[in-house]
Amino acid sequence: MMTLDKKYHDDLLAAMRFHEISGERAGEVLAEIDAHVSETGEDPNEVFGRPRDYAKQVAAQLDSSTGKRSTGETVLWSVVAGFLGMFGPSLLGSGMDLSKPEVGFSMRDVVAQPVLLVIIVIGVLLFFRAYTASSHNKLFAGGAVLAAIAGIGSQVAANMALDEETPVVSLPTWLVLGLGVVFLIALAVLLTTAIRRNRVVYPTKR
Predict the structure, then answer these.
(1) What does the pLDDT read at residue 68?
(2) In this structure, are residues 91 and 176 in contact, taking their beta carbons and an 8 Å threshold?
(3) pLDDT tens for residues 137-179?
(4) What number is the average pLDDT over the span 184-203?
(5) d(Cα 32, Cα 150) in Å, to the nearest integer?
(6) Please, is 89 exposed, middle or buried when counting C-beta atoms within 10 Å of its C-beta (0-12, 13-18, 19+)?
(7) Residue 147's CB: how many other CB atoms inside 10 A?
């Protein structure tokens, strides 16, 4: 009895995750293909097409009620995760020295990191679109590359043009430390939720 090729299985699973297809629906799709291959012995590439293409077909049939998050929800989760991942460690590190009553943030701190966060989010979304879009993939990929270049350029420009010594905003050290801890806990919860949602759940055999 022939079984589904591991490479096809892994490539299709990765493609479905790019399309935000739930672990439950992904398990159903993989089980269906595995059953077909076991029964017929046919090459899944010939029957279902390339993993990337078939994942698009599956995603096109779904909506938020049938195993796929909306684009808006995906964007929101990406922005929140990026925000927590960037500022959590930074605030935690800045607030570790409790011997100082306050933590000062320079103009470079206030401007450079938020700008970098925005560029990173844009770049990730463009990369996501380049992989999952049915057309204009090269255009989206080019945009992602440009976003990466812009991110590097923004930090170089910030280092050259903005003051990194004089504080423009000061916060109590305990508050900075507390925010860092809260942000990292929130990030852990967010990632745990995403992992659970993406865990493949195969149909129960009867």
Answers:
(1) 57
(2) yes
(3) 789 889 989 999 999 999 999 989 998 888 899 999 999 999 9
(4) 83
(5) 44
(6) middle
(7) 19
Q: Which residues, other chains included, contact 139 with Cβ-Cβ below 8 Å and sequence gap of 6+? A: none
pLDDT band at 72 (very low <50, low <70, confident <90, very high): low
| Alpha-carbon separation of residue 10 from 52, 80, 120, 194 (angstroms) | 11, 28, 27, 18
Name the maximum alpha-carbon separation found in the chain: 71
* Cα→Cα distances 124→34, 189, 205, Å: 32, 21, 38
What digits encode the pLDDT tens for the residues 172-191?
A: 999 999 999 999 999 999 88
How far apart are alpha carbons 90 and 116 in whole angstroms? 14
Per the structure block, which two tokens stand in for 186?
């929130």
User: Residue 102: beta bridge partners?
Assistant: 172
Q: What is the CA radius of gyration of the chain?
A: 22
* Residue 135: both structure tokens together: 């057309």
Q: Which residue has the higher pLDDT, 17 or 1?
A: 17
CB-based contact 18:55 (threshold 8 Å): yes
- In this structure, the strands spanning 167-172 and 102-106 are antiparallel
Q: Please report the sign of the dihedral spanned by the C-alpha atoms of residue 133, residue 135, residue 141, residue 144.
A: negative
> Which two three-digit tokens encode residue 173?
């050290």
